[in-house]
Amino acid sequence: MRVAAQTLLLGATTAAFAQEQKVLTNYGNAAQHPLEHAADAFRNPLEHITEALGEMPAAAKGLWDEMSLLVPGFVEKASHLISRPKPHTRKPDSEWDHVIKGADLQSLWVETNGVKHRKVDGPLEAYDLRAKAVDPSALGIDKVKQYSGYLDDNENDKHLFYWFFESRNDPKNDPVILWLNGGPGCSSMMGLFMELGPSSIGATGSPKFNDYSWNSNASVIFLDQPVNVGYSYSSSSVSNTLAASKDIYALLTLFFEQFPEYSKQPFHIFGESYAGHYIPVFASEILSHKNRNINLQSIAIGNGLTDPVTQYTQYRPMACGKGGYKAVLEPSECQSMDNSLPRCESLLKSCYSSESAWSCVPATIYCNNAMIGPYQRTGMNVYDVREKCKDRENLCYTETAWISQYLNQNSVMKALGVEVSDYSSCNTDVNRNFVFQGDWAKPYHRLVPNLLKQIPILVYAGDADYICNWLGNKEWTEALEWPGKKDFNSVELKDLSLEDDVYGQVKSSGNFTFMRIYQAGHMVPYNQPAPSLDFFNRWVGGEWWKA
Questions:
Q1: How much is the average pLDDT of 149-170?
Q2: Which of 113, 265, 372, 389 could form a disulfide with 381 if both were Cys (CB 3.0 to 4.6 A apart)?
Q3: Which superkingdom does the taxonomy of this entry point to (predicted)?
Q4: pLDDT for 312 beyond 60
């Protein structure tokens, strides 16, 4: 996808509505599409919205009327819900090395302590998993064993692409990681080739070995989700985090059944940006199944959007010189943000109360217009307050274009068994769907206290990021209501070091840990590869959570 201007796809796209800009909070190569099908051009935009959301509650009418005055074109922009299937050709099962049927797995029973139960909980009947061995020499991406393939939801015609890399070290014992980029609507291939994967892609289009890849000591699954992102495809769409969680559970269950040699090792979920929404929901879904083959040990969120009410209070401080870097905005603009914050908080709290799209969409659009828009208009990089946006066509990072060019090569797609005609790093249609369904502003942080009773959680943040800045992430971790709140908040930040070089700060209590990573933007492994591998290895090794 191409982007005409810097955008807010969270890898955050809410200011897109307010300013005709798309902020992909997880970077990517976003393509412009017509705002509506030609047949929709003469329709009342509100009719289009009502078709998707149902009748507007009477209590919401005043709010939407107010938003129409505050944000010109609000209703028209909110009606731009587009979901287009990606051209594809599904390969027959005979072309795959492995095919496992969810229905077959669902029918298996085992006996434990004299009690019979399903081997794994479902429902899995509609799902298949297809896999093929990828020849490392064909692509030059590492030398380790690797698989690519699709998770198929045959009932809903959804097909999620994944690419798995075995650990370079000791795959029989090293942990297994699922990595998720955000958006919502950005491909995890960006994380693979720009951040923490076994290779990067340079200007020449050739893979370059990454000494600091996270598969140095762990096996890693990179997943394109939700559907219609990256190499994934569907004739339908996913527009909320809860729906996506069912696919993740099915993917992991079938993957570990097909490849049981990785199922006993500790399993962790890592992700960034809008993954701050995804991961608490995905982990809750996994842990809700008593009979499972997923050995989930922890989750970690990098520069995530998790608790908007709390995090939006920190945009003004970050933009105005309180986050450790010089101010980006003038005092008058900082005052304007101060003036807008009470209304933004009120709207977000209304969304938290109702969790209705009729409340959450206005909250998202107003708050991003008021709290992110002023920063965007400066031309600075929303993912790094230290620099101008140098490549607006590619979300400030030319690397995204190089990655897309590489992944659109026929030889690459053939080697991976890809079933779509092209790769796009971020899908603005998917992003728009999530915003329009109200998912952006919802309080998924409410799942975290229950998760903390069961597994450790790491929240880390590069301290030069604006869009999901470290001030906001620190703020929500300390505002979270959970039994360990008092102890966690009383812990002081301590230095994080690698070979006597301090690269950040950490505080940890019970199952909760927060890290600030110095001199890193939205994508911590991109800016700080060696430190990111260090804290990753130390986290999965249990330094802050194993007794």
A1: 95
A2: 389
A3: Eukaryota
A4: yes
- pTM, whole model, 2 decimals? 0.89
Annotated catalytic residue 522 = yes
Q: Report the C-alpha gap between 101 and 511 in whole angstroms.
A: 36
- In the prediction, which pLDDT does 145 show? 98
Q: Does the annotation count 273 as an active-site position? A: yes
DSSP assignment of 306-371 equals --HHHHGGGHHHHHTT-SSS---S-HHHHHHHHHHHHHHHHHHHHHHHH--HHHHHHHHHHHHHHH
Quote helix, strand, coil % in the chain, to nearest 5. 40, 20, 40
> Which one of 237, 465, 532, 534 is the catalytic residue?
465
List beta partners, residue 272: 302
DSSP state of 171: T
Higher pLDDT, 235 or 516: 516
With tokens 């005052």, the residue in question is 335
**What integer pLDDT is reported at residue 4 of this predicted model?**
29
Catalytic site residue from 273, 284, 340, 425: 273
Which tokens belong to 132?
């093929």
* Closest-CA residue to 244 (of 299, 282, 296): 282
Would you call 494 exposed, middle or buried from its count of C-beta atoms within 10 A (0-12, 13-18, 19+)? exposed
Q: In this structure, are residues 152 and 194 in contact, taking their beta carbons and an 8 Å threshold?
A: no
What tens digit of pLDDT does each residue of 370-383 get?
Answer: 999 999 999 999 99
| Burial class of residue 233, CB neighbours in 10 A (0-12, 13-18, 19+) | buried
Task: Please give the pLDDT value at position 45.
Answer: 63
- Asked if residue 547 has pLDDT above 80, the reply is no
Tell me the three state secondary structure of residue 247: helix
Cα dihedral sign, 240-242-246-249: positive
The residue annotated as part of the active site, out of 268, 425, 522, 532, is: 522
> One-letter amino acid identity for 238?
V
Residue type, 361: V
End-to-end CA distance of the chain: 47
Residue 239 to residues 61, 227, 357, 431: CA-CA distances in angstroms?
23, 10, 12, 8
